[in-house]
Amino acid sequence: GKRLEHFLQALGNHETPYYDNKKRTEFNDNERMRKADAKAGRPSSIPSEEDLKKREEIDRRRYGQMLDGLLSDGSESEGSDEDEKELEEAVFRAANTAGSPVTSAREINALRPS
Length: 114
What we know:
The chain is mainly α and 114 residues long.
């Protein structure tokens, strides 16, 4: 118990600066890659900022629901149908933006995080 707690605490101490730096640099990195894709005449492999924000919002909501489910009865709670639809649309847009068209529900489901 205590070893795991100390390990997770140490891990968290290293993750926080990493993700803080990523938040500061991600927008500029994405813009740089989009410009390079445009200059090369190819579709951008980076989803739009709108799609990235929507995905972040959905992921945070699902994470909160999972934590609520774990705290309430020890099982994960499922996301709403609306969350699933938004996620499918975001995945579809991102995949098509990246130049690899997704054409079926099976392919969308294969891209869905487990």
